[in-house]
Structures are given as C-alpha cells and as structure tokens.
C-alpha cells in the first residue's frame, strides 16, 4: 500500500485565495468590532435615560401619595363636620 504524496509546490492561485479569505475575515472582524462599540454606547446612554425615568417615576409616585393623603384628610374633615 502506497501513501498519498502531498504536492508541496507553490500555487499562486491558492495563495491569493487564502489571502482574500484572510482579508475578508479581518474586514468582517473590524465591522463586528464597530457594531459592538455602537451597541455599548447605546446601552450606556439607555442606562442614563432609565435612571432619569426611574427618578421621575419615584417623584411622581411620591406626589400622588401626598395628594391622596391630602384628599383623605379633607374627606375625613368633611365627614367629621357632617356628624
């Protein structure tokens, strides 16, 4: 049984094909990296927006609670006057 022999000669077409594939992979990697950077900056900006909205929601809830307490106190006074 004879072993297959590998042709070790230099083939320019194969070399150019390999370089084209390598170049494509590098370009793809760079595009992915730029997309990741955009997503990271968007996430950071969204976190700030979320913090502001959460703070505003908390202030609004506190105001609603205060208003409800005031209304309850007024209702209690009205009920006491009618008795």
How would you describe this structure to a colleague?
Keywords: Membrane, Transmembrane, Transmembrane helix. The chain crosses the membrane at residues 12-30. The chain has 83 residues and is an all-alpha fold. The protein has a domain at 33-83. Helices cover 86% and strands 0% of the residues. It has 1 helix and no strands. It has one helix at residues 12-82. The longest helix has 71 residues, at 12-82. The radius of gyration is 35 Å and the shape is rod-shaped. 0% of the residues are buried.
Task: Give me the secondary-structure topology.
Layout: H1 12-82
Question: What are the salient characteristics of this protein?
Answer:
single chain, about 80 residues, mainly alpha, 1 helix
Pairing-aware structural class of the strands and helices? mainly alpha
Residue fraction in strands: under 5%
Terminal CA distance reads 115 Å
Taking pLDDT < 50 over at least 5 consecutive residues as the criterion, the unreliable ranges are: none
Overall shape: rod-shaped
Q: What is the number of helical segments per DSSP (H or I, 4+ residues)?
A: 1
Radius of gyration: 35 Å
Q: Could you give the count of β-strands?
A: 0
Q: Describe the largest sheet.
A: none
- SSE order in H/E notation? H
Kindly state the percentage of residues in helix. over 70%
Q: What do the pLDDT scores average to?
A: 93
Summarize the structure.
The chain contains one helix and no strands. By secondary structure, it is mainly α.
């Amino acid at each position: 049984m004879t072993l297959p022999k590998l042709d070790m000669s230099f083939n320019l077409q194969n070399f150019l094909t390999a370089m084209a594939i390598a170049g494509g992979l590098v370009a793809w990697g760079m595009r992915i990296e730029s997309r990741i950077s955009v997503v990271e900056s968007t996430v950071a900006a969204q976190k700030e927006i979320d913090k502001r909205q959460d703070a505003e929601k908390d202030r609004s809830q506190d105001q609603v609670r205060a208003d409800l307490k005031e209304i309850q106190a007024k209702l209690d006074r009205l009920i006491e006057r009618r008795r």
